[in-house]
Write a structure and sequence with these properties.
Number of helices of chain A: 15
CATH superfamily of one domain in chain B: P-loop containing nucleotide triphosphate hydrolases
Largest interface: A-B, 16 and 23 residues
Distance between the termini of chain B: 43 Å
Number of strands of chain B: 10
Number of strands of chain A: 5
CATH topology of one domain in chain B: Rossmann fold
Structural class of chain B: alpha/beta
CATH class of one domain in chain B: Alpha Beta
Oligomer: heterodimer
Strand order of the largest sheet of chain A: 2-1-3-4-5
Helix content of chain B: 25-40%
Radius of gyration of chain B: 18 Å
Largest sheet of chain B: 6 strands, mixed
CATH architecture of one domain in chain B: 3-Layer(aba) Sandwich
Helix content of chain A: 55-70%
Chain lengths: ~350, ~240
């Protein structure tokens, strides 16, 4: 009987909280369908540059589904700029294969496919040298997504902590009390950004240093750039967390933003190859801050990009932060019309 | 400053089609202690939030201390105590007071003086260094009142200041409110549904379903309704059978 009372009460409460219900039933579908599209993406075409290749070989390669470009004068810079996957240079004594290796698993697959296509005659009679543009033959999949993981954890924890802290201020009435003083709305937002920003910054430094020096994550580029990117990530996450807290009535509802805001961003931040996704799916990725963060982090830590090469990503991140900050200031109008 | 500290002219407010404040006009003369009397849910808090500029009326005009509401500068001159205690419970009482004092840009010296004054007024001096989470309900109310007084405002707006406070302290707080009015010439607007408090106000406005049923001095109201005490005034004004 008493158990029945509890069960009835829980059902009543759940039925009232339409948002939780919607999340319970719809969010898994959303995440599942995202995963479906991401994992079912067609394998992208592999672009292979061939220098000095005999016509017979080119035909064979094309038959094996390679997108072959014949070019006798190719440089590594061209390879990088055009994102060509590999370059096969056939000389009399030896064949040299240069792999871009921006995605180690794709590079390994390419190597195997190439070996199959070249069999049996070529491979055995020639010496074969393999070179890598990024990383080397030992590059593991973890090396390319660990930079992104650093960005993700900074984003995730800062988001939750500020979101819940500001939510507490809203529900306890102190935010309203604050707005009964002559404080400006922008002063409140700025105060929050600086206050929690300090903690976010310390957290960012700890995560980055731990990742690089203890876990020995590859970092080819400057550690200062890594810190700069992550500080921007923290700022975006801080302002987004604060903003979304105004759409949550409880800590529970704040947690519900995890599958809606955090999880989809993970899918688009480089764990899964974006190049092979369909166009519309790639476009969805472009509205997510972590996409740019992962791009920049991967660029600096794995490919050794410099400041100017990640400038666009940094600007986009700063733009996101600015947008969320402005929306925060506007959303406080709910408590005071001035 | 004009004759009236607060002037409400035909203000009206609806929430989701429901009329919360019917067109209503009210004047609060400077230097008086005005009681806003009414049952729970009659619109007292909504009215106060509109005077503060936190809720915008759908119609009508609000003027407070020569400013047309909403006005940010005005908020310096208003000491506000909300109905629910909006305190940072993981900070100490002193930290709460200093925080709000800083929001009014008081100098360090002024701040120390005002914190000591306000804490003494509500008898919290000894507990000032304890965390608010360990305060009793009455202590939290007192701290909220101290915060309302921190910047020495001209106008005090107190939303049910004595709820949950024991009779002894309640009496002391009322003595202090009257002293603030008489010696420091402050205008005070208090909401209450305690009838014994109504007697101590200079003027009363009785609010019910967003309308002012009656207003005047306590004596006038009692005479008008031919009542012995305020419980009776209230019931008669509300149309209940006594």
């Amino acid at each position: 009987m008493r158990i029945g009372a509890i069960v009835t009460r829980i059902i009543q409460q759940m039925m009232r909280d339409k948002r939780t219900l919607a999340l319970l039933f719809c969010a898994p579908l959303l995440v599942l369908s995202l995963m479906y599209f991401i994992f079912n993406s067609d394998e992208s075409e592999v672009t292979l540059i061939v220098s000095h290749g005999p016509a017979q070989l080119i035909e064979k390669l094309e038959a094996a589904d390679f997108h072959v470009i014949e070019d006798d004068n190719v440089t590594i810079t061209q390879l990088k700029d055009n994102q060509y996957d590999a370059w096969l240079d056939i000389q009399q004594k030896q064949t040299k294969l240069t792999l871009l290796n921006d995605d180690p698993s794709a590079a390994k697959a390419l190597q195997m496919k190439l070996a199959q296509a070249l069999q049996p005659e070529q491979a055995s009679s020639m010496t074969f040298v393999t070179d890598y543009v990024y990383g080397d033959e030992d590059t593991a999949i973890f090396d390319i997504f660990s930079p992104m993981l650093i960005g993700f954890f900074v984003f995730f924890f800062v988001f939750l902590i500020t979101g819940i802290a500001l939510l507490k201020e809203r529900t306890s009435g102190t935010l309203e009390r604050l707005l009964a003083t002559p404080i400006k709305r922008s002063e409140i937002v700025a105060g929050y950004l600086v206050g929690y920003g300090l903690f976010a910054l310390v957290q960012t430094i700890i995560i980055v240093l731990f990742g690089i020096y203890v876990l020995d994550i590859v970092h080819v580029g400057s550690i200062w750039l890594v810190l700069l990117i992550n500080s921007l990530v923290a700022l975006v996450s801080l302002s987004l967390g604060a903003l979304l807290s105004s759409f949550a009535a409880s800590e529970f509802q704040m947690m519900q933003f995890i599958p809606l805001v955090i999880v989809p961003q993970v899918f688009f931040s480089g764990i899964f190859p974006l190049d092979s996704m369909v166009e519309w799916l790639q476009n969805i990725g472009r509205i997510m801050p972590l996409y740019y963060a992962a791009n920049a982090l991967n660029g600096v830590m794995y490919k050794g990009f410099t400041f100017s090469e990640i400038l666009v990503d940094l600007l986009v991140l700063a733009g996101f932060a600015l947008l969320f900050i402005l929306l925060n200031i506007i959303s406080l109008k709910k408590y005071r019309s001035l | 400053m004009g004759e009236n500290a607060i002037t409400l002219s035909a203000i009206e407010k609806r929430f989701h089609q429901k009329e919360v404040i019917a067109p209503l006009s009210l004047e609060v003369p400077t230097g008086q202690l005005i009681g806003l009397l009414g049952p729970s849910g009659c619109g007292k808090t909504t009215l106060i939030k509109m005077i503060m500029g936190m809720i915008k009326p759908d119609n009508g005009r609000i003027q407070v201390l020569d400013y047309v509401v909403p006005h940010k500068q005005l908020l310096i001159d208003i000491g506000y105590m909300a109905q629910s205690d909006a305190l940072y419970i993981d900070l100490t009482g002193a930290e709460n007071l200093h925080f709000f004092a800083k929001l009014y840009r008081l100098s360090k010296k002024e701040r120390v003086e005002r914190v000591a004054y306000a804490a003494n007024l509500v008898r919290l001096t000894e507990d000032l260094n304890n965390k608010v989470v360990n305060y009793s309900g009455g202590m939290k109310r007192r701290l909220s009142l101290a915060i309302a007084l921190i910047q020495n405002p001209k106008l005090l707006i107190l939303d049910e200041p004595t709820v949950g406070i024991d009779p002894v302290l309640k009496k002391e707080i009322w003595q202090e409110l009257i002293r603030l009015k008489e010696k420091e010439h402050k205008t005070i607007l208090v909401t209450t549904h305690a009838m014994d408090e109504a007697e101590r106000c200079d003027r009363l406005a009785m609010l019910r379903s967003g309308q002012i049923l009656a207003q005047g001095t306590p004596q006038e109201l009692k005479a008008h309704y031919q009542a012995q005490d305020f419980d009776e005034v209230f019931l008669k004004a509300g149309g209940a059978i006594v």
